[in-house]
Specification:
The protein is mainly alpha-helical and about 425 residues long. The protein has helices at about 5-10, 10-25, 30-40, 45-70, 80-90, 95-115, 115-125, 125-150, 150-170, 175-185, 210-240, 245-260, 275-280, 290-305, 310-315, 320-330, 335-345, 350-365, 375-390, and strands at about 75, 270, 395-400, 405-410. The protein has a two-stranded antiparallel sheet. The protein is globular and about 65 Å long.
Length: about 425
Amino acid sequence: MHLPGVLGDVSISAICAGFIAVAVSYAGPMLVIIQAAQRAGLNSDQTASWVWAVSVGSGIVGLVLSLFTRQPVVVAWSVPGSALLLTVLGDYEFSDAIGAYIVAGLLGLVLSLSGLFGRLLAAVPRPILAAVLAGVLLPFVLNVTGAVLASPLVAGGLVVAYFAGRRLFPKYAVPGALVVGVVLSMIAGQAQSPELSLAVTVPLFTVPTFSIQAIMGISIPLLIVTMAGQNGPGLVMMRTSGYAPNDRLLLTGTCVASVIFAPFGSHAINLAAITAGICCGREAHEDPAKRYIAGAAGGLFFIGFGLFSATILDLFAAVPGELITAMAGVALLGALQGSMLDMLDTGSHGPASIEAAVVTLIITASGIAPLGIVSPFWGVLAGTAVYLLLSVGRGRRTVKTTAGKVPAVVPTPSTKRR
């Protein structure tokens, strides 16, 4: 790794993108972990260790993979996995849950090393995968309207500042909007003064135990929702942003980290989907080759936040929720636009792929989770089924245009001319 070259690629916009990605993770998904810990009856040491484990684990993997691959690899914890644990964690001994986390990580490692998950993902038409990503991003962007209505000065001012920045200084539109939002929240009196006590979090090691009940109730559902709801959209996000991620390398790295940090409370570490859009987009840097700094910066922020997790949570609790909601929405606008354009690009798949992509978008954006499995999985399943129904069995042949160079695929007539 050529350190001077890395330092030469550092930019304020990329560092800000990494910070915003981490801020969004702490302001929203982290609260799901805290709520799950409370419902399961975990004590403060166990909860702090859980936060430490997912933060430091995600940070180390994101930092190393971003610098190694020179791609913006954003790693975080499983959000749908956290939601799953809201309902099931309290039903098992905590040591059994730790054992189930390890089993889920090992099963994911098998899928990653074999390349099976990557091959399955590659077999799905690109418009359907783009629609999954659009469906994941759309609710976050739509939430901006509610934030603006709830807090016109702070959230509305942030949105105005973002679009003004897109016109005047596109590279710094997102960090500029964040600064404006913070200032406006202070002026409006919506920012609280947190009571901070700077203390390094000490992780708590739990000896894992294994039970069939916990493996069936936690490991299998956790594996499904993490691979389908996080790693899949995470890979799609990188691909639609113009990168060619090595799925075996990235998924193996996250699964190994999941196993290592599980005894400290981490339920699953995986590729990020939502926050990856912040670091993979043009707001991080106009040059895609230099956006890996955003992923590396996000990793460093995750490590720092994890080491002082209790203090950082106090800081984010002082910021109005409408500001975080609006900030996440505008930061993801570029990624949403790109995924929707890809969704409508049929390529070699024909018009059937658009109908299938629309079905995928609707189901994914709905947020349904039958059988405890998150909507992106059902979106891909339904979209692929519609695509196969509309396209398989219809004969197609390739012809040449009058220029004799560009191939065009047209339906083969069902009857021959006599």
